[in-house]
Design a protein that fits this description.
Pathway (chains A, B): Purine metabolism; IMP biosynthesis via de novo pathway; 5-amino-1-(5-phospho-D-ribosyl)imidazole from N(2)-formyl-N(1)-(5-phospho-D-ribosyl)glycinamide: step 1/2
Oligomer: homodimer
Family (chains A, B): Belongs to the PurS family.
Subunit structure (chains A, B): Part of the FGAM synthase complex composed of 1 PurL, 1 PurQ and 2 PurS subunits.
Radius of gyration of chain A: 17 Å
CATH topology of chain A: Mth169, Chain: A
Number of helices of chain A: 2
Enzyme class (chains A, B): ligase
Protein name (chains A, B): Phosphoribosylformylglycinamidine synthase subunit PurS
Order of helices and strands of chain A: EHEHE
Distance between the termini of chain A: 10 Å
Largest sheet of chain A: 3 strands, antiparallel
Strand content of chain A: 35-45%
Number of strands of chain A: 3
Shape of chain A: elongated
CATH architecture of chain A: 2-Layer Sandwich
CATH class of chain A: Alpha Beta
Strand order of the largest sheet of chain A: 2-1-3
CATH superfamily of chain A: Phosphoribosylformylglycinamidine synthase subunit PurS
Helix content of chain A: 25-40%
Chain lengths: ~90, ~90
């Protein structure tokens, strides 16, 4: 079994209205030093196979087709082999 | 200047309907090995100060008060000193 972590971020040139909105809240609360907040996704899941190549292929396709929007987001992933209880081997 | 990265995740016992929904999509697309998808947030921003203690305090408070929901989410953060163009020192 493998544990996968995928980080999805908007490309730098794409506006991030959610980040902007949260940062306005920061200013209202008095955090005056916070700049350029950008909010992406952090996704964790398991891939139930012992074949690392297959696991990697599924993680990549899952990220491309469902977890990210290829028009405006980039993703990076990492894969670790774990035992069935989810601990690192 | 410091660059901060904050990861916000739902606590393990809290249901994640968004993750469940995406995983159903995965099954429809034929990814049969994907399990327990959970979707959190990955937040990046800068803190415009040279005082590491102040930066850390702002990152923590910002995470607690705005970036996460303390009822059902946990967060972890990391801070790196960077020069003004955003590169690691």
């Amino acid at each position: 079994m493998f544990k996968a972590t995928v980080i999805v971020k908007r490309r730098p040139k794409i506006l991030d209205p959610q980040g902007k909105a949260v940062e306005q809240g920061a200013k209202l609360l008095g955090f005056n030093n916070v700049r350029q907040t950008r909010i992406g996704k952090y996704i964790e899941f398991f891939v139930d196979t012992d074949d690392k190549n297959l696991a990697e292929k599924e993680v990549k396709e899952y990220s491309e087709k469902l977890l990210s929007n290829p028009i405006m987001e980039d993703f990076e992933y990492s894969i670790t082999e774990v035992n069935v209880s989810g601990e690192s081997k």
